[in-house]
Amino acid sequence: MKALVYEGPGRKTWTEVPDPTIMDPWDAIIQVDTVTICGTDLHILGGDVPEVEPGRILGHEAVGTVVEVGDAISELRPGDRVLASCVSACGRCLYCRRSRYGQCLGGGGWILGRLVDGVQAQYARLPFADLSTHMLPPTIGDEAVVMLADIMPTSYEVGVLNGRVRPGDTVVIVGMGPIGLAAILTARLYSPVRVIAIDKAEPRLRAAERFGADITVAPADDPLEVVRSVTGGLGADVAIEAVGVPESFELCASLIRPCGHVANIGVHGRPATLHLEDLWIRDVTITTGLVDTFSTPTLLTMLGNGQLDTGHMITHRFALDDIEHAYEVFADPARSGALKVALSRT
Fold first, then answer.
1. pLDDT-above-70 percentage for the chain
2. Within 13 Å of residue 250, how many CA atoms lie on the same side as its CB?
3. What's the distance, CA 174 to chain centroid?
4. What does the pLDDT read at residue 269?
C-alpha cells in the first residue's frame, strides 16, 4: 500500500510501505476512506514532537471501513464503517477507568501517527479498536464526521470544558485555525455573551465571523484594549489558546480577568513565559491538556441530530494520492484560504 511517511523534520513522502497486519488481539485493520491533516502534523514536521521517529506513517484523523479484526474484538465486524479516534484507550488502566483516555497507561493515548503508524495511508491498524473507534450510521457523511476524530472533541474538552465557559461569559479565542474555529462552535453551546476571535490572517478572521464570533481582532489592533473596552475594563472570563506559540499563550494570560480561566489547547514546541508576578494575586486558573475523546459519542449524537454543523470546515478536497500537495495547501492558509482539507479514496 501507499502511505505518507515522516522522514525527519521538514521531510515526508508518499511512498510504498508494507500493508498493516494484526499485531494484537485488540487490533482492527481499516481501509481508509477519508482522512484529514491536523495542525499537529505540521508541528511534527516542524520538529516540535521529537518522539516521532523517521519512518513513522503520519495521521490520526480518519473514517474507514473495517477489513479485519483481532480475536479479542467483540464490537466490530468487517464491513463496518467507523470513525477512528485520535486517542486510543486500553480501557483497563487507572486513567481509562476515569475516562482520561489521553493519559492511558496501557499502551494507548495519542499514539496514532506518533508512537505507532497512523492513518494517512490506504490502510491502517487501529490498536484497542473496540474502544477507539465509533460505529457510524449511513446518514452521516465522511467529511462531516471526520471532524470528530480530533478537532471537535479537542476544542470542546481542552478548550471549552477546561475553560469552564458559562452563560454570559466573554470568551476570547486566540488562533483561528480549525481548532480555534471549532472552539467557537462548541463555546456557543454554553451561551456566552460574546466570543472574541484573534488572528493575524484576515481570511481566518472572516471565517471566524462565519463560525459565530461576535468580534474579530488582529494582534496589531491592540486586543487587550478591545477586550477591556467591552468588559468594563475587567478582561475575558475565558481565554482559549489555539496556536501553540509563546506569544499566543502570553497574550491569553494578559487578556484574562481576575478569577478567569486560560485554557491552553495549542501544541507547544518552545518555552512560554508565565508572568506569575502579575498573575499570582488574581486567582487565575490555567489548564493544559491532551484530548481524552470522552465527548465523542455526545458530539456524534448532536451531529446526527443536526445540532452541530461541521461539514463547512472543509475548504479543500483532494484524492488521497495527492496528499503531498494537500499538505502544501494546508500549511499555507494565508495564501490558500485553507481551513481543513479532506482526502478521499478514489
1. 100
2. 10
3. 15
4. 85
Q: Which of 108, 215, 86 is nearest to 158 (CA)?
A: 86
**Nearest Cα to 252, choosing from 160, 163, 171, 174?**
174
Please name which of 261, 251, 269, 266 lies closest in space to residue 287, comparing C-alpha atoms: 261
User: Cα–Cα distances in Å, from 284 out to 234, 235, 240, 271?
Assistant: 13, 12, 13, 20
DSSP code of 147?
A: G
Count of other CB atoms within 10 angstroms of residue 47: 12
Contact, 261 vs 178, CB < 8 A? no
- The three-state secondary structure class of 53 is coil
Residue with cell 470542546: 156
Q: What is the residue whose three cell numbers read 461576535?
A: 214
The pLDDT value recorded for residue 123 is 98
What's the pLDDT tens digit per position in 289-340?
Answer: 999 999 999 999 999 999 998 878 999 999 999 999 999 999 998 889 899 9
Q: What does the block give as the cell for 136?
A: 457510524
The model's pTM = 0.95
